[in-house]
């Protein structure tokens, strides 16, 4: 929690200090813009949540000078596999990608946010906590952002522009009157970081298909011993805090067989997954990014990555407008980034539905098609390129 008094005005107020909000703030601060970041939480992320950082995002973070630090704190994973129990249906290697970062990086979100926050502080910025935004009103050529502080004392900060990076239930998006079109999946999702024995090498992220649901298992960095993993799985009705028994049951039913023994749940949660895209990314002087603009299935680990890339583009455009370029330049943010979100939502939706086919004939056809198609080098290359989000440069 910061102790610096909240200023009465700023060129840009960013609501939300997740990866997208921090990225936008760094980009603006580097350009010399007067930016204030507000977050409703009294402290930053202390759980891992999003954990996949793709090649395109590492390129963006390299532009900010922090990719190498994040890589040092994460674990490099050069391979993605699709499995049906003991059978490997597809193997996608990232090592041939045309990038400085031909791999996926597993780095828990709390680490990513810590690296971004340190970089923002280096640029002269900070995050003000806890401030809960309650309303945004237009005033003259700017905006009045109304908030409650940690003691529920009301206040107002004036801004030329506001960026909403405050998640799926975005107050900023609602205040701007921007619709959030889409739907939700009927299943709930289990999310857990566990310690376990796992028969698959720690150089791959494994997507396990089964009629019971989709399960993703990925290694996490672990200084103590190499047995820390992220598990994401669809279940009909997940408990609020999945236990060792719950995760073990999922992996016994869907995993690769062999020695799978969950010994500890470090952190767990359940959540419902929506697939939605905001109807617009801009409403006058209010703009949105990250989960405030799009949410989708965790299949492929695209969410945080797309949000960070949103924020880097938006921060750069807004810095140019603040430096005197025409405000119409901000319209290009929606025209370039909203199609990306629609594409990501469609791609992850197809992956999720493909992974959760229930009937045996449909699964057999899917498995055969995957096994045949993935043998084609061009198909493997396109899938790796797509997962790495390099097409969104």
Layout of strands and helices, then pairs:
Blueprint: E1 9-15, H1 19-30, E2 35-38, E3 52-53, H2 55-63, H3 67-73, E4 75-77, E5 79-84, E6 87-93, E7 104-106, H4 109-122, E8 127-128, E9 132-139, E10 142-148, E11 154-164, H5 171-176, E12 180-197, E13 204-208, E14 215-219, E15 228-235, H6 244-254, E16 261-278, E17 282-283, E18 286-288, E19 294-295, H7 303-322, H8 331-355, H9 360-373, H10 377-387
Parallel strand pairs: 1-2, 1-11, 2-8, 5-13, 11-18
Antiparallel strand pairs: 3-7, 4-7, 5-6, 9-10, 10-11, 12-15, 12-16, 13-14, 14-15, 16-19, 17-18
Helix pairs in contact: 1-4, 1-7, 7-8
Rg from alpha-carbon coordinates: 21 Å
CATH architecture of the largest domain: 3-Layer(bba) Sandwich
| Helix percentage | 25-40%
Question: How far is the N terminus from the C terminus?
Answer: 35 Å
**CATH-assigned homologous superfamily of the largest domain:** FAD/NAD(P)-binding domain
- By CATH reckoning, the class of the largest domain would read Alpha Beta
The H/E string reads: EHEEHHEEEEHEEEEHEEEEHEEEEHHHH
Low-confidence stretches: none
Q: Please tally the β strands and state the result.
A: 19
Structural class: alpha+beta
Largest sheet: 8 strands, mixed
The protein's oligomeric status is: single chain
User: What is the molecular shape?
Assistant: globular
Total individual domains: 2
How much of the sequence lies in strands comes to: 25-35%
Query: Do you know the CATH topology of the largest domain?
Result: FAD/NAD(P)-binding domain
Mean pLDDT metric: 91
Number of helices: 10
